[in-house]
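Chapter summary example: a protein plus flavin mononucleotide.
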Amino acid sequence: MSSETKKILVFAGSLRSASLNRKLAANVAQLAQQQGAQVTLLDLNEYPLPIYNGDIEDEGMPENVHKLQALFAEHDAIIISTPEYNGAVPALVKNTLDWISRKQANGDSGIKVLQGKVAGIVAASPGALGGLRALLALRDQLAKLSLWVAPTQFALGKASEAFDSQDELKDNQHKEKITQIINEVMRF
Ligand SMILES: Cc1cc2nc3c(=O)[nH]c(=O)nc-3n(C[C@H](O)[C@H](O)[C@H](O)COP(=O)(O)O)c2cc1C
């Protein structure tokens, strides 16, 4: 691996086993590897967190917050595959980012592990628009956390029909669009 190799953290904003966004995130991870990135595919099921509550934080930061902060800190960039819930980003994505923005184990603000990083954003939905409104909300949220969001984004509509029996994207144009996002993220 060269010193120029980009480390990208990819995760889906859904926990369910048959999640379309988890399938999309796995495709993103594979395509990013093909572009030469060093990729970590994060499963948020492995880092369960309560809904943010200042009382919980005051009692002692959940261990998974510090683990996630350390994981984010190790990477140059993130790519999120988000579902759309009622036109917005699901609570899981917001809650994860909110916890990560809190104090790190070394006392520094968690915002430091986010700011300046590059982000790519994709979404998947069984609906025709593919989660486009969630992407707009997520772009705004990430910008407020001082990440650079790649200009190209991808909303996979009719996502229930988009994957083959191996959970791979069937349409090469979809793969090309995702590769464009990955290249933007890596070029930054
Ligand atoms: C609470 C809730 C709200 C939803 N709102 C939307 C929506 O606004 N737009 C949309 O395209 N799909 C919406 N859906 C459908 C999701 O796109 C669909 O459940 C999708 O499969 C969730 O992502 P996942 O497969 O990665 O878990 C909603 C689903 C839930 C549970």
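Key point: The chain has seven helices and six strands.
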